[in-house]
Design brief:
Layout lengths: L2 H17 L2 H15 L3 E3 L13 E3 L4 E6 L6 H19 L5 E6 L7 H13 L4 E5 L1 H8 L4 H8 L17 H13 L10 H7 L4 H8 L5 H10 L5 H18 L4 H13 L6 H16 L23
Parallel strand pairs: 3-4, 4-5
Antiparallel strand pairs: 1-2, 2-3
Length: 313
Amino acid sequence: MELWQRNFVRAALRSRLNELHGEEFETFFHKLMELRDPGFLGVRTYGDYGDLGADGLTVNARRLYACYAPQSVRQTSVKSKFRRDLSGALEKRSDEFDTFVFVHNDLRGILPAVTSAISHAKADHPQLRFEAMGANRLFREIRRLDLDDIEELLGPLPVREVVTGVGMEDVAPLLDHLAQSRTRTAPPDGIPIPPQDKLEYNGFSADYRQLLVRQLPYVPLVEAYYQQRTDPSERDETAGAFRDEYSAVRDGCSDPDDMLDQLLQYILGNKSASLRVQSAALTVLMYFFGECEIFRIPPSGWQTERVGMEGAG
């Protein structure tokens, strides 16, 4: 799937999630997971039996899924739903799963009360793993499908390239934050050194290395941004999406400069962006680069070929 198609699919998914609630969302989720995994069993409600505490199961991976997609979201109701679903699953299916997955359609992420409930549930049930599945993870499942299956799920894809805006909408607020904060923040003296070997090991050209090194003073702004977010899984989901996109780009491209260009397009889409927003996007990439989420890590004992780096002084 081409980059512009992936951006289109992401936008189409987010549009569908805005429209799908209750049983319609469950039906959509069942269809997606049945296309993805032959071992997935979508559980429908049946008479007095209900769903026996599950909206879906993957029998091979022993994962139980609980869906929640109301038209209006309230912290108390979501938290109560999570607790009821977990209690029902433990009562009726305790020997059928090792991982409890809370599936939701909230594009803004998980509410703070729910993250607290998940944390407490893990403390109360240390034998279980707990996960959340929102827009990012749903997209990561969809992108692994064949194009025919994607069209079955979301409708026809365009036959030619379309103009897309911010392909990765989850980082749009972060880009805005960085674009504003960078102008108010004086870069500290010196450049952090740790990513230097990784930059050289991955074979970026001198021009691209200089471009990336210039972003290093602003990388702490990204970490500060995620520290202030209410959803602790937001950073990890975004990192996972970057890893997946990097893997897809790497499979079809061998030049690291071209890979970087495609990752920028992944964030910004193919619609023109201001230089300030482009610089913010590069800062985001450099953050995940330094966190070892994307590009190759030098093996132990690898020695850089040069003492200093262009632009590092």
